[in-house]
Amino acid sequence: MPEQVPSKESFTFAPEQGVPPAVGPFSHVTRWGSMLFVTGQMPTDPATGALVPGGVLAQAEQVRANLAACLAPFGATLDDALMVRVYLTDFGDFDAFNALYRTWFAGPLPSRTCVGTTGLAVGADVEIDLVVGLPAAAAEVPA
To answer: φ, ψ for residue 112 (rounded to 5)?
Structure first.
């Protein structure tokens, strides 16, 4: 029996699913076989699309919630992340962000890159994107 070749599937979610509206022309998640590529999530409230106030830690928590909402339809969590890319507009926030970030994972930490940048979309202080390996039990495509 020939090996099944994966195909690219793209998913866009609605604010009712806990994912903010896209701020540009992209899908929230692209699936390739058992891999998910989650577009950079901004610290915006899914209900309003507005940037959350409160600085980098409050914004990071909103980004975490938005990432979790992108993963939920696939039965995945942040613990399934293989690679995390973090973008911070102020590297002075690095230590405080790291202390919060460590609390997001129950198991071993994924690989990570953290980049300092001079600006992010919507005036955000932080943006995070993911590469995720789907657990074997999460083989179904979300409805």
So the answer is: -155, 145
Question: Can you tell me whether residue 64 is helix, strand or coil?
Answer: helix
Helices and strands (DSSP H and E) totals, the chain: 2, 6
**Three-class SS of residue 115?**
strand
CA distance 122 to 12: 19
Q: DSSP of 77-110, one letter per residue?
A: -GGGEEEEEEEES-GGGHHHHHHHHHTT-SSSPP
Instruction: List the beta strands (DSSP E) in 1-142.
Output: 8-11, 29-32, 35-41, 81-88, 111-116, 126-133
* pTM tops 0.85: yes
Q: Give per-residue pLDDT as tens, 87-114.
A: 999 999 999 999 999 999 999 999 999 9
